[in-house]
Amino acid sequence: MPSPLSTRLPQLRKAKDFSGAVVALTGAGSGIGRALAVALASRGALLALSDITPGPLAETAELARAAGARDVLTTTVDVADRAAVEAWAAEVVAHHGRVNVLVNNAGVSLTGQFAELEHADMEWIVGINFWGVVHGTKAFLPHLIASGEGHVVTLSSLFGLLSVPGQSLYNATKYAVRGLTEALREEMLAAGHPVDVTVVHPGGIATGIVRNGRFADPDRGARTISTFDEVLARTTPEQAARTILSGMSRRKPRVLIGADAHLLHNFARFAGARYQDVVARATPADAQ
Fold first, then answer.
1. CA geometry: angle 68, 235, 62, nearest 5 deg
2. What whole-number distance in Å separates Cα of residue 145 and Cα of residue 135?
């Protein structure tokens, strides 16, 4: 006779197939979001794409159609606006009839020492990186449960696994996304809801997130952009999308992307809290 605990643990299930699945994706206008949209289109998914900028969003939709997407709904959405996200969720269900997957991908960056950051910039990044995930997940979750085969995916970061100087608010939002996602997965398992939950931790990905971000010090910002683009961004968005979809298909609770993410995550686990001392000493003051 199985123990009560065994009946509440996740059971082995076949790999997830995206063919015919309705996927809602935020931040689809560029970077990982665009790469995911194209990769999902090639796998037969039906798409509901959103972004705050309509031009790039339309370009992604055309790329998705060229990759084989049968149905692409595009909506301009500011994920920091709860009412806008709720209206988008209703539109997606009205258009597609259901939702199977939500990918909370939209995100921004804010670089600068905490003492130098402006409150307006801190509220901006929290509104998008954290509240955007809350709004999207809250609006879509009932539909994902009702689908009978749902999946919530959130984009945290390597900086949701360890902290670095000059990224205090970015770290804060990405740790928050990780905590929210892991608790949500536990809730879905405990309640027996048919919803998989995956949190993604990318390392350096060759996107415009840093280039298009905000900086407390513009001079340091220029150096940060150069370092990120030329040294740190070693993984392409297409490689990231393949890794994410592989992890989703295997229903993994956590997906790390890039050798840098794996290396630094393991270093932080090995060093414990003392990793902070090493990172602080290794970071030049003018790079923060």
1. 25
2. 16
Cα four-point dihedral sign 261, 266, 269, 274: negative
| Structural domain includes residue 12 | no
Task: Identify the domain containing residue 154 by its residue range.
Answer: 18-287
Q: Does residue 150 fall inside a structural domain?
A: yes
Which residue is catalytic, options 130, 140, 159, 170? 170
Residue type, position 137, single letter? T
pTM above 0.90, yes or no: yes
CA–CA distance, 157 with 255 (Å, rounded to integer): 10
DSSP one-letter code for 16? P
Are 130 and 169 in contact by the 8 Å Cβ rule? The answer is no
Give the count of domains, the chain.
1
What are 217-254's pLDDT values in tens digits?
988 888 899 988 888 889 999 999 999 999 999 999 99
173 token code pair: 């939002």
What digits encode the pLDDT tens for the residues 119-168?
Answer: 999 999 999 999 999 999 999 999 999 999 999 999 999 999 999 999 99
- The CATH number of the domain holding residue 139 is 3.40.50.720
CA distances, 234 to each of 28, 32, 229 (Å): 21, 14, 9
Q: Annotated catalytic, 175?
A: no
